[in-house]
Amino acid sequence: MSQHSLEIVERHSGSNRRGELAEIAFMYRASIEGISVSKPYGDNHRYDFLVQHGQRLLRIQVKSTFKRQGAGSEATKRRGRLGYQVIIARPRHNKEKNSPYYSREEIDFVVCFIAPADVWYIIPVEKLGHRHAIRVFPHGKKQPFGGLYEEYLNAWNLLKQDDSSAAEHTKCESEVSQKDQNSSTTEYTSSGRKGV
What we know:
two-stranded antiparallel ribbon, alpha+beta, five-stranded mixed β-sheet
């Protein structure tokens, strides 16, 4: 996003609106990557989208930040903890007893949009554990610790069916088709049934 666009978003929209913008951006970017995107009706699911690439179907939760790098307290800046913070736990409403953390039973990936850097982190949910927030460093980090999620920077390949499973699926379809052809091309002779 351009700097001007970010300033407008920061001034004129609340967190719900920014979340909606991140979801629109996700649909656009996933489509460019050749990934089909579907939005479930209503808000009854823990995931925001279902995505499909080949035979692979996954549940996606989209999170985002529109804050500039290093936004936060002076103490945070002094410690060199720049980068971008993304809240990944789900909001709790009233006195919900549910855990605020996502699990593998609910979703497959958390996809984080870092709007000021215009980058994405595609993170398997099991890699997040019980964290409320994560910090990512798409421009590099200034300290030896942290940066646990940099391998997931723009890792769109994780949402795609790999070629080996696509080849295996095609091979299975071919074998089934061949068996169907063989069973339908039989010839009967005086001595009994004989395949051709």
